[in-house]
Amino acid sequence: MAETLKVVVTGAAGQIAYSLLFSVAKGDVFGKDQNCCKSCPLFLLDIVATDDPMVAFKDADAAFMVGAMPRREGMERKDLLKANVKIFKAQGQAMDQVSKKNVKVIVVGNPANTNACILSKYAPSIPKANFTCMTRLDQNRAQAQIAAKLGVGNDQVSNVIIWGNHSSTQFPDVAHASVTIQGKTVPVPEAVKDDSYLKNEFIKTVQQRGAAVIKARKLSSAMSAAKAACDHMRDWFCGTGDKWVSMGVISDGSYGIREGLMYSYPVRIQDKTWSIVQGLTINEFAREKMDATAAELSEELDAAMAECEA
Ligand SMILES: NC(=O)C1=CN([C@@H]2O[C@H](COP(=O)(O)OP(=O)(O)OC[C@H]3O[C@@H](n4cnc5c(N)ncnc54)[C@H](O)[C@@H]3O)[C@@H](O)[C@H]2O)C=CC1
Ligand SMILES: O=C([O-])CC(=O)C(=O)O
Q1: What is the CATH classification number for the domain harbouring 47?
Q2: How far is the CA of 139 from the centre of ligand 1 (A)?
Q3: Known binder of ligand: residue 110?
Q4: What is the pLDDT of residues 217-261, one digit of tens each?
Q5: Which entry of 7, 63, 107, 128 is 20 to 30 Å from 13 by CA?
Q6: How far is the CA of 12 from the centre of ligand 2 (A)?
Q7: Is this complex scored with an ipTM above 0.85?
Q8: Which UniProt keywords apply (predicted)?
Q9: How many domains are there within the chain?
Q10: Is 113 in the pocket of ligand 2 (CB under 6 A)?
Q11: Catalytic positions, please?
């Protein structure tokens, strides 16, 4: 049995955590022989329930930051900024004091990118690379759209990229993606053969998927969000092999994006360390979309900083 991991899930009484806790407990994220927190004969976890961040984050190895207000119909994710950003300031301050310095953090609570940025700013003793936000749900949605269009399984589609913000300005990009059909691997644009669909309907469907779910359910996505959070953390701990996955990570200026923004990039993960996939050709269409979502993130970050300092 591997060493016990301490995993924090904030917002543990909410919709997303309802599925997330079960998946962590049955070994979908950290492996079937990995104890979480303390040993327990039936499940792989022992639970400490607390509303004290200094207790919750003490010695944390991994944190799923889900606790935050969800948006309702008619709202954009950035409308949650005022309500949620201060939660992340306080939690960052607690993590800074009591978490392990190699804690791996995924922010799910919206606006996820900017909340992750704030969390990291208020936990300066923890490396910035340890803070990420979730765009895996968008990646899974994009993959599913392409798979359905081509009549193949989701796992036959790889290297779909989500650039930028987890919001309606995100840029789902299949220019570098491939699909395996009857044993043959081909670029997605070649297989789909419909540039207009890929540049319009496909992008819009993925950008608007969160809103469509809220409209239908009057609640935001829950099980699919939990699944995506597990995918993200599992890949971070276990690696991606040759494939790329998308996650919001701190920008180092790659692809001309403002340094310090929490921007979704394609990454490879090895030895629990992510690195941005470099050298991709960016055409004019992509450039415009990547810059538009970066501009929104810049605005969000400036507003969030003002809120935190108020
Ligand atoms: N990044 C992504 O792809 C997605 C993000 N989300 C976001 O995830 C967040 C959670 O969604 P749900 O689970 O559906 O919401 P929910 O309302 O069912 O659960 C949120 C939980 O957080 C708790 N909470 C509120 N303030 C807290 C604080 N200061 N500390 C700890 N816990 C606190 C609430 O009491 C509640 O139990 C929302 O912000 C939602 O918009 C949802 C789907 C996808
Ligand atoms: O749209 C929302 O507010 C919830 C969410 O982030 C998603 O489903 O992608």
Answers
A1: 3.40.50.720
A2: 20
A3: yes
A4: 999 999 999 999 999 999 999 999 989 999 999 999 999 999 999
A5: 128
A6: 17
A7: yes
A8: NAD, Oxidoreductase, Tricarboxylic acid cycle
A9: 2
A10: no
A11: 166
